[in-house]
Amino acid sequence: MNSKMKIIDCDVHNGFASHMDLVPYLKEPWKKIVTEFGFRLPFMYSSPIGVLRKDASPPNGGPPGSDSAYMLEHLVKPLNMEHVLLTGDTFIHLSNLPDADYAAALASAYNDYLIEEWLSKSPVFLGAMVIASQDPAQAAREIDRIGSHPDIKAVVICGASRIPYGQKHYHPIYEAAERNGLTMMIHPGSEGSGISGPPTGAGYLSTYLQWHTSLSSVYMAQLISIVCEGVFEKFPNLKFIFCEGGVTWLPHLMWRLDKNFKGLRWTAPWLKKMPSQYIREHCFLTTQPIEEPEDFKHLQQIFDMIDAENMLLFSSDYPHWDFDDPTAILKRLPQEAKHKIFYQNAKSLFQL
User: Fold this and answer.
1) Distance between CA 38 and CA 32 in Å, rounded?
2) Spatial strand order in the sheet of 283-286
3) Can you list the alpha helix ranges (DSSP code H) found in 30-135?
4) Confidence label for 3 from pLDDT (cuts 50, 70 and 90)
5) Cα–Cα separations (whole angstroms), residue 136 to 102, 116, 127, 133, 235
6) pLDDT of res. 105
């Protein structure tokens, strides 16, 4: 990669040094609960090799991703990144907590912490706010509360949900996101945990390996629901990012959805375009973990099928174990396509 190429990284995980970092931003009784018991977040599948890069540990001894100054030195400056979108970490999964009020309190506290402890530290940092979608009316109020902050660019929710994301239950959230000019972002993590359903249509998987490999199946179901329930007709300015779920599953989904729609369009009479057209106009996928076949021509062919240079956003997933280095992936793409994927698509989407 040209060392002068600008980069916007759309999935960087900032985390807490300790659960006590959030306590100053909480009110009672939540402050007492977190102080005494920690966050108590649901999470089913743990990696046997760890999730965080050991070389990303800051010199102050905190966990990787917990020190803003070190993140700038270790990730941003060496890789010439103009912006990174901070997507948080385990708080993405708040919507799978059984206690909706507790989840909403954690979300509000985290969003205040994000603005104060991260976004204020450098103009490089952009933020994805979190919400607790169990109570869509409350989640919409939270979006309205901080959504106008100039460095908040997205609303991140978990891949897992109690009901598919296209259904009307979630529409107050999308209305608020559209009203505030924010992009919705789906990120995996707690599928099969808390109040969500099984992590796959086949049920509960046994290991982290199986769960991590099957994430695209969750994304396929969520995308089909969002398109077919008419979310993009109801909210014509709304955009969605499907983060960390892979890329190469998309051609199959668009072909089959278009084919079935031709015969079954009466079941979705509110759609005025072919499903694939809504996807191309409203949806983005992040690159990490990018599929890497032995023959690059195979990946190039799939990219051509989905107009990838206009739909993909670069993401590294820093500081997670399967980090994608922007100097190592997609090196054989044409220069113009790389410029769009690594920089211009995100710059346009977030109006930077």
Assistant:
1) 10
2) 7-12, 81-86, 125-130, 152-158, 183-187, 240-242, 283-286, 312-313
3) 30-37, 68-71, 100-114
4) low
5) 14, 25, 21, 5, 16
6) 97
Cα gap 143→177, rounded to integer Å: 7
Task: Report the number of secondary-structure helices (H) and strands (E) in the chain.
Answer: 14, 8
Give the list of residues 6+ apart from residue 276 with CB closer than 8 angstroms, or none. Answer: 254, 255, 257, 258
Chain centroid to Cα 59, Å, comes to 28
CA atoms within 13 A on the CB side of 261: 22
Q: What is the pLDDT of residues 65-75, one digit of tens each?
A: 999 999 999 99
Q: What is d(CA 72, CA 75) in angstroms, rounded to the nearest whole number?
A: 6
Structure tokens at 158: 């978990």
Helical spans, DSSP H, in 74-202? 100-114, 136-146, 171-179
By the 8 A CB rule, do 157 and 107 touch?
no
Report which secondary-structure segment, H or E, holds 81.
strand 81-86
**Before 289, cis peptide (omega within 30)?**
yes
pLDDT digits (tens, 9 = 90+) for 190-224: 899 999 989 999 999 999 999 999 999 999 999 99
CB 127 within 8 A of CB 151: yes
Question: Distances in Å between the alpha carbon of 248 and those of 44, 51, 205, 274, 321?
Answer: 26, 24, 22, 20, 21
Instruction: Kindly state the percentage of the chain with pLDDT values over 90.
Output: 87
Dihedral angle, C-alpha 323, 352, 131, 68, nearest 10 °? 50
267 burial via Cβ count (<10 Å: 0-12, 13-18, 19+): exposed
How much is the pTM?
A: 0.95
What angle, rounded to 10 degrees, do the helices at 215-228 and 275-282 form?
110
Token match 């599929």: residue? 291
**How remote is the C-alpha of 296 from its chain's centroid?**
26
In order, the DSSP letters of 259-288 are HHHHHHGGGSTT--S-HHHHHHHHEEEE-S
Task: Give, as one character, the DSSP assignment of residue 23.
Answer: G
